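Action item from last meeting closed. Structure (252 res):
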């Protein structure tokens, strides 16, 4: 039988103190994580209220995950075909987007901002864990919101399709969504003329930006007049976030 020496007993007390210190540190970290979780949720709750929607408690986890990975965003593949304008930032740009797989949600709420908010919350859950591989998939930009105008071109139709591009590693074998309202779709190649604008996106701001873009382009039959895309590059919690209006070129 091994003997227990006096110095071993002395060391035992020190080890216990160290373990207590380590345990205390863990509790502090957990408290800090919980505080951060609460702070982020409260911030997004305010943002959601400006979009006239409520934020469910189960969004706390996806919000924390999206915040942790906010600096890593994969751009949707595309080719810039031409730029127009003499300023440092082009007045508008023409691009080609190849075919690819997107996760899509369609909503038809009374307000545009309600539709895109509810759809994006569903996509956030899918991106963060509610998928067949059970892990964070990665964020891509931009997220697209496809809209339609009425015959007079004065109002948006209620139905809005919100689409998230699957990261490159999942293009061949997309994770299956747990939410039946999310559909994985192979979208055809797209040729668009784009113009940047900043701030919140509502029916009013979108109609204004479409009107300004038409003034810039002049009369042309080369693009669709009833269907447009609002591309968003930053999450809804950023007040002066970057957006783009996309005019869709007609198939040749």
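Sequence:
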């Amino acid at each position: 039988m091994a003997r227990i020496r006096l110095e071993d007993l002395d060391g035992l007390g020190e080890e216990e103190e160290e373990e207590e210190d380590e345990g205390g540190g863990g509790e502090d970290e957990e408290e800090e994580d919980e505080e951060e979780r609460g702070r982020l949720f409260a911030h997004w709750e305010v943002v959601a209220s400006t979009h006239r929607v409520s934020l469910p408690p189960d969004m706390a986890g996806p919000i924390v995950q999206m915040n942790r990975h906010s600096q890593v965003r994969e751009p949707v593949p595309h080719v810039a075909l031409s730029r127009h304008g003499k300023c440092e930032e082009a007045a508008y740009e023409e691009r080609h987007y190849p075919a690819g797989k997107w996760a899509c949600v369609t909503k038809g709420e009374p307000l545009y901002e309600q539709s895109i908010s509810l759809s994006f919350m569903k996509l956030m859950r899918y991106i963060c864990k509610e998928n067949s591989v059970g892990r964070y998939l990665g964020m891509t930009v931009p997220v697209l919101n496809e809209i339609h105008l009425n015959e007079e071109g004065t109002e948006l139709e209620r139905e809005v399709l919100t689409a998230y591009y699957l990261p490159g590693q999942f293009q061949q074998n997309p994770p299956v969504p747990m939410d039946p309202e999310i559909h994985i779709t192979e979208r055809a190649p797209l040729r668009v003329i784009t113009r940047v604008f900043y701030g919140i996106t509502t029916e009013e701001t979108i109609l204004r930006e479409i009107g300004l873009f038409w003034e810039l382009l002049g009369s042309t039959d080369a693009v669709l007049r009833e269907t447009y895309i609002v591309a968003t590059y930053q999450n809804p919690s950023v007040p002066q976030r970057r957006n783009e209006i996309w005019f869709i070129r007609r198939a040749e």
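Note appended to the action item: The first helix runs from residue 6 to 50.
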